[in-house]
């Protein structure tokens, strides 16, 4: 049976919204577009998360590091205390997140078609579950189909993470359809595991020299169509 898995951050909701709500409280010297500013933050988030996953930093240290490096690039160095204040405010805003427009309709349609839905995300369990609950995802995803890297013991794109999820779902690789926004973790990891992996590249990240086996899409409407097309293709096989 087909199971459709979604990444959480920047796939089911827009991670930029709470970030910019907090950033508006700061006077920045360097002039960057919103897109460039958020790309800096995501770059430092990924680097800090890798160090946290490897045990080189505590979670709090990783939050301080990513915030300090981002603000340094934006021309406003922060102390560790100031960086933690930013993080605490950012987390409060994350409690107010909502599903991206069109996602609720998509999830309702999949549920009405009795297609199992799962969430597969990197991050600390407590932190990711707060976002899961804020989005009301329990309406579509039962606890047995929530997969968080800290609980698994390995983050995406490690093969062990994908193997764990596949075994937990009692599925074959060709029964899994995975949608994510990050090429390096979601798409490479999924393709290597033999899953059908769809790249939701709504941030318009560079696509040159990237090996992608399925069509790339850039909006929730296109995500909806890509999933529909994949389901239809499976019925024809």
TrEMBL record:
Pfam families: Hydrolase. One of its GO terms (biological process) is small molecule metabolic process. GO terms for molecular function: metal ion binding; phosphatase activity. Signal peptide: none annotated. The keyword Transferase does not apply. It comes from the Bacteria. Its cofactor is Mg(2+). InterPro entries: HAD-like_hydrolase, HAD-like_sf, HAD-SF_hydro_IA, HAD_sf, PGP-like_dom2. Keywords: Hydrolase, Magnesium, Metal-binding. The keyword Metal-binding applies. SUPFAM superfamilies: HAD-like. This is Putative hydrolase of the HAD superfamily.
């Amino acid at each position: 049976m087909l199971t459709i898995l979604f990444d959480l951050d920047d796939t089911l909701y827009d991670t930029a919204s709470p970030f910019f709500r907090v950033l508006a409280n700061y006077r920045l010297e360097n002039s960057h577009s919103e897109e460039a500013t958020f790309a800096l933050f995501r770059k430092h988030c990924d680097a800090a998360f890798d160090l946290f996953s490897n045990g080189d930093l505590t979670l709090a240290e990783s939050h301080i590091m990513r915030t300090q490096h981002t603000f340094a690039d934006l021309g406003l160095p922060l102390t560790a205390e100031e960086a933690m204040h930013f993080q605490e405010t950012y987390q409060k805003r994350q409690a107010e997140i909502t599903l991206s427009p069109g996602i609720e309709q998509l999830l309702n349609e999949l549920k009405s078609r009795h297609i199992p839905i799962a969430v597969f995300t990197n991050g600390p369990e407590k932190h990711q579950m707060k976002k899961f609950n804020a989005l009301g995802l329990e309406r579509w995803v039962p606890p047995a189909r929530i997969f968080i890297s800290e609980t698994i013991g390995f983050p995406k794109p490690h093969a062990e993470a994908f193997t764990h999820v596949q075994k937990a779902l009692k599925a074959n690789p060709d029964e899994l359809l995975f949608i994510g926004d990050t090429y390096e973790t979601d798409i490479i990891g999924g393709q290597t595991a033999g899953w059908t992996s769809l790249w939701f590249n709504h941030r318009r990240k560079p696509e040159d020299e990237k090996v992608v086996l399925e069509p790339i899409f850039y909006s929730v409407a296109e995500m909806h169509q890509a999933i529909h097309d994949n389901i239809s293709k499976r019925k024809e096989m």
